[in-house]
């Protein structure tokens, strides 16, 4: 009889690239299959063969639709996986757009470099032929020895935690994979649900060693940055992740302009992917929290307001340059690694009247991190760009729980909880959180390294 075990194939020692194997009597289950992002060897890693036989995996469970949790799924299918993929309905719909875009980018890079892409749009289509949706809070029997219940992670639309119950020699062991836990209260989604019926927890630690600024402070800073840039008649550039962050920024600017807190100025959502994803948000308002639902009931078109324009075509994006300031440009990607934001940064960073506003985690090695730490000259599209614009950072808009909130989540899981595995963080963040949990609760805490296995 196989004792339940977890192997941390990726997402251990790094923020991105989630990929964990949970196996036991009669099942081999993957949780997430994401791309590594931001690190120098990321492209090589994402092309590597999987360290397990994809055809030997029975099921893949997907916590949410960010690319560092889903980005290698089509490659898994291409390499032989033929099991079932499970997630919430929202995650499935969002992932379909995210992976189609990833395949498109991979094809463009392949044409430019001559290197075969890790997968194609055909592999994406095949992945979704295997994909099924599960609801929250309903127990699903995966095999005779394994069942699962989805809990709301409160991270982004459709994000879930998976609470597995595995039977071994008549004993039931429960394991919670959190995915990414949300920074509750969130702008859109409901609060993260606390879990008190898990024996083991695999938890993320992006902000394991630091706390966000208070919600009131972040909103005050956001308003101040908008007002200051508008007063200088400058351009505010916001590199935004196409999924969730772009929608949050648009919604908040909508509220500030409609309430008269900031003047009405041209606002551009310059990301075809973010625009498509926003359409899904508009269809799935039932997943929103009560505050947003009440806004919608009151007649507010939360993603549409005067002087707001979605720019889909390249010509529309280029036309933004001809619009005089003040103006606001929201463009992908969130860490300035690709996308239209790079052209805007090249254009507007040299001007001290302009502002670059970073509103989320910037991975080591990305242009976003270099700008965050204050580099005064960067390279964009092979051109040296002087950074004279103001560079601001508001961490409170992160969709991830901070250190205090992660500790609270673990505290709510006591006294049943036996062991915690800390993943999805830079080593210093994971180790700091591990020490906090040990000091506060005297429980068994492990920071696994890539490839390590642990019997439960």
Sum up the structure in keywords.
Metallo-beta-lactamase, Chain A, seven-stranded mixed sheet, 14 helices, 22 strands, 23% strand
Strand line-up in the sheet with most strands = 6-5-4-3-2-1-22
Uncertain residue ranges: none
What CATH architecture label of the largest domain applies?
4-Layer Sandwich
CATH class call of the largest domain: Alpha Beta
Secondary-structure-based class equals alpha/beta
Strand content: 15-25%
CATH H-level homologous superfamily name of the largest domain: Ribonuclease Z/Hydroxyacylglutathione hydrolase-like
> What is the C-alpha radius of gyration, as a whole number of Å?
22 Å
Number of strands: 22
For the record, the count of structural domains works out to 2
CATH topology of the largest domain: Metallo-beta-lactamase, Chain A
Largest sheet: 7 strands, mixed
Mean pLDDT: 94
Q: Overview of this structure, please?
A:
The protein folds into two domains: 5-210 and 399-455, Metallo-beta-lactamase, Chain A; 215-397, Rossmann fold (3-Layer(aba) Sandwich). The mean pLDDT is 94. A hairpin with a 2-residue loop joins β2 (19-24) and β3. The radius of gyration is 22 Å and the shape is globular. The chain has a seven-stranded mixed sheet with strand order 6-5-4-3-2-1-22. Strands 7-8-9-10-11-20-21 form a seven-stranded mixed sheet, covered by helices on one side. The chain has a six-stranded parallel sheet with strand order 14-13-15-12-16-19, sandwiched between helices. It has 14 helices and 22 strands. The chain has 456 residues and is α/β, with parallel strands linked by helices.
């Amino acid at each position: 009889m196989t004792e339940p075990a977890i192997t941390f194939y990726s997402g251990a020692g790094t923020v991105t690239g989630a990929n964990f194997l949970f196996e036991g009597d009669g099942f081999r289950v993957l949780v997430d299959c994401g791309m590594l992002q931001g690190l120098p060897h990321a492209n090589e890693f994402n092309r590597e063969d999987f360290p397990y036989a994809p055809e030997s995996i029975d099921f893949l469970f997907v916590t949410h639709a960010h690319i560092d949790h889903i980005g290698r799924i089509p490659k898994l299918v291409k390499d032989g996986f033929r099991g079932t993929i499970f997630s919430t309905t929202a995650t499935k719909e969002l992932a379909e757009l995210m992976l189609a875009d990833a395949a498109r980018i991979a094809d463009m890079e392949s044409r430019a470099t001559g290197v075969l892409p890790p997968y194609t749009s055909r592999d994406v289509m095949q992945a979704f032929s295997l994909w099924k949706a599960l609801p929250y809070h309903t127990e699903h029997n995966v095999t005779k020895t394994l069942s699962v219940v989805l809990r709301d992670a409160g991270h982004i639309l459709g994000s879930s935690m998976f609470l597995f119950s595995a039977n071994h020699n008549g004993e039931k062991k429960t394991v919670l994979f959190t995915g990414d836990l949300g920074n509750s209260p969130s702008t859109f989604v409901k609060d993260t649900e606390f879990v008190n019926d898990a024996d083991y927890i695999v938890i993320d630690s992006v902000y394991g060693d630091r706390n966000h600024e208070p919600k009131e402070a972040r909103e005050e800073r956001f308003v101040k940055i908008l007002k200051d840039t508008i007063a200088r008649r400058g351009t505010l550039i916001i590199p935004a992740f196409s999924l969730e962050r772009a929608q949050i920024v648009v919604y908040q600017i909508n509220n500030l302009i409609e309430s008269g807190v900031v003047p009405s100025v041209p606002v551009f959502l310059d990301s075809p992917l973010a625009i498509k994803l926003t359409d899904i948000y508009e269809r799935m308002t039932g997943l929103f929290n009560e505050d947003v639902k009440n806004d919608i009931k009151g007649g507010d078109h939360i993603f549409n307001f005067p002087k707001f324009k979605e720019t889909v075509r390249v010509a529309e994006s280029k036309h933004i340059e001809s619009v005089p300031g003040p103006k606001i440009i929201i463009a992908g990607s969130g860490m300035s690694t690709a996308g239209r934001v790079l052209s805007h940064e090249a254009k507007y960073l040299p001007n001290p009247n302009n502002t670059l506003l970073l509103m989320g985690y910037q991975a080591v090695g990305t242009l976003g991190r270099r700008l965050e730490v204050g580099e005064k000259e960067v390279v964009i599209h092979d051109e040296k760009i002087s950074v004279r614009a103001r560079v601001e950072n508001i961490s409170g808009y992160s969709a991830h729980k901070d250190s205090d909130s992660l500790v609270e989540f673990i505290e709510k899981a006591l006294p049943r909880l036996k062991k915690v595995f800390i993943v999805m963080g830079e080593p210093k963040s994971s180790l700091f959180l591990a020490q906090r949990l040990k000091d506060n609760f005297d429980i068994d805490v492990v920071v696994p390294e890539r490839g390590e296995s642990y019997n439960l």
